[in-house]
Amino acid sequence: MLEHVPAWLGKALINVRAGHGRLAIVKLGGEGLIGKDGFDLTSPAFANGEELDPSFTADEEDAVAPPLEWTAPPAGTQELVLIVEDADAPGAEPFCHWLVWGLAPQRGKLLEGETPPKVGKNAFRNSEWLLPDPPTGHGNHDYVFQLFALDSAIPLAPGATRADLMAAMDGHVIGAAILTGTYARREDDDEDGDWDDDAEENAD
């Protein structure tokens, strides 16, 4: 239900849906943190709210993560963390597509397909960009790229889980920026999509 989506988050989203209330930013963010001091996240490959190119999804065999760019984070930032989640996937937690940390606390970018400094386990328990692949007929899903500015470094080795990362971030977020890409499976694609019971159970 939409009452689970905080008003401060709803203002930053284009098409608010109930699933947005389960995003990491709801647990870690708060009033005034999104866009603080002009902190912004963009991509040269898609505008906020636009569809992801197939080259970043399961529609193409050699797909990779999309390029991202961000402005300087708020003063006092020691590290940046990126969490990408499917807000429309069923389950208690959003489907996690990417966990990235160890990003320098300054204006920067990730190139298309670039390997980040540290990557955690996605919903399929792999340390990589999990290609968007929702079931056919679900319509557009929102893939929300959430970039967090922290006032301390994350003391986790690569391969940590979403739960581990969020626990380490708790109480240390001083700014955030979000960017949404959408994607829907083509009618002639695999109808099963990328979800299964094991993935949902291991999402944390």
* Measured distance between first and last alpha carbons: 22 Å
**In which order are the strands of the major sheet placed?**
6-4-3-7-8
Largest sheet: 5 strands, antiparallel
What is the name of the CATH superfamily? PEBP-like
CATH topology: Phosphatidylethanolamine-binding Protein
Question: How many H/I helices?
Answer: 4
Oligomer: single chain
Report mean pLDDT, rounded to a whole number: 90
The CATH class: Alpha Beta
In percent terms, what proportion of residues is strand? Answer: 15-25%
Q: What is the string of SSEs from the N terminus onward?
A: HHEEEEEEEHEH
Q: Which geometry do the CA atoms define?
A: globular
Total number of strands: 8
Share of helix among residues? 10-25%
Number of domains: 1
Low-confidence stretches: 200-204
Radius of gyration: 16 Å
Helix vs. strand class = alpha+beta
Summarize the structure.
With about 200 residues, this protein is an alpha+beta fold. The protein has one domain: Alpha-Beta Complex (Phosphatidylethanolamine-binding Protein), CATH 3.90.280.10. The chain has 4 helices and 8 strands.
Tell me about this structure.
A hairpin with an 8-residue loop joins β3 and β4. The protein has a single domain, classed as PEBP-like (Phosphatidylethanolamine-binding Protein, Alpha-Beta Complex), CATH 3.90.280.10. The chain is globular. The C terminus is likely disordered. The longest helix has 8 residues. Helix content is 11%, strand content 24%. The protein starts with 6 loop residues before the first helix and ends with a helix. The protein is α+β, with helices and mostly antiparallel strands and 204 residues long. The strands form 2 sheets. It has a 5-stranded antiparallel beta sheet with strand order 6-4-3-7-8. It has a 3-stranded antiparallel beta sheet with strand order 1-2-5, with no helix packed on it.
